[in-house]
Amino acid sequence: MTRLALAAVITLALAAPAAAQVPWDAAKKAAGQATVGKLEKEINRRLLEEGRKNQCSFKTDNDQLEPGCDQKMKRLSNALVDAKKRLNGAGVKNFKFVVSGHTDTSGSAAHNQELSARRAAVIEKELVARGIPQAEIESVGMGSKKPLVKPDDTPAKKAKNRRYELQVRL
């Protein structure tokens, strides 16, 4: 066997285990992503549920919270702490909690966008005051773009669309 042929055989022999490892690594990565995706869905379902149970009311056409929201904000911050523990336990480090503010369809789209952003920022501030790190929270205004109830042509339906939601984004 020539030196060149021997070198080729050795190279192939050494490369074979590495080549066999690539599909295994890909499978491990896919399984990890599926597990993290499932965890993200589960956490978002819980956060959405907690947000709906713990809605604080705002004064009409403004970003001031009505009195009596302390316990609700405490429960929301506890839900975020629990979510953070689960994410950290799964090895997920890069995530953001997103607070989205929503309005009903009354008023102009530009006004609703700005109002929903201010309301989301108020909730973000409340959560930070209760120990959630600022760097882990982002607030966004959605205006009336994603209503829960269509059409919102009664006071009760409008009230359902005026809300905030919490989600984790990985």
Structural summary, described in words:
- InterPro entries: Bact_OuterMem_StrucFunc (IPR050330), OmpA-like (IPR006665), OmpA-like_sf (IPR036737).
- This is Outer membrane protein, OmpA/MotB family.
- Keywords: Membrane, Signal.
- Residues 135-170 are annotated as: Disordered.
- The chain is mainly alpha-helical.
- The protein has one domain (37-169): 60s Ribosomal Protein L30, Chain: A (2-Layer Sandwich).
- 58% of the residues lie in helices and 11% in strands.
- It contains 4 helices and 3 strands.
- α1 packs antiparallel against α2 (70-89).
- Residues 6-10 have low confidence and may be disordered.
Fold blueprint:
Blueprint: H1 3-53, H2 70-89, E1 96-102, H3 109-129, E2 137-141, H4 155-161, E3 163-169
Parallel strand pairs: 1-2
Antiparallel strand pairs: 1-3
Helix pairs in contact: 1-2
Region (Disordered): 135-170
InterPro entries: Bact_OuterMem_StrucFunc, OmpA-like, OmpA-like_sf
Protein name: Outer membrane protein, OmpA/MotB family
List its salient traits.
membrane, mainly alpha, three-stranded mixed sheet, 170 residues, globular, Bact_OuterMem_StrucFunc
List unreliable stretches of 5+ residues.
6-10
Q: Roughly what percent helix?
A: 55-70%
| Mean pLDDT over all positions | 85
CATH architecture: 2-Layer Sandwich
Widest β-sheet, arrangement of strands: 2-1-3
- CATH T-level topology: 60s Ribosomal Protein L30, Chain: A
Overall geometry comes to: globular
Overall number of domains: 1
**How much of the residues is beta strand, in percent?**
5-15%
Radius of gyration: 24 Å
Our measurement of the CA-to-CA distance between the termini, rounded to an integer number of angstroms, reads: 55 Å
CATH class: Alpha Beta
Count of helix runs: 4
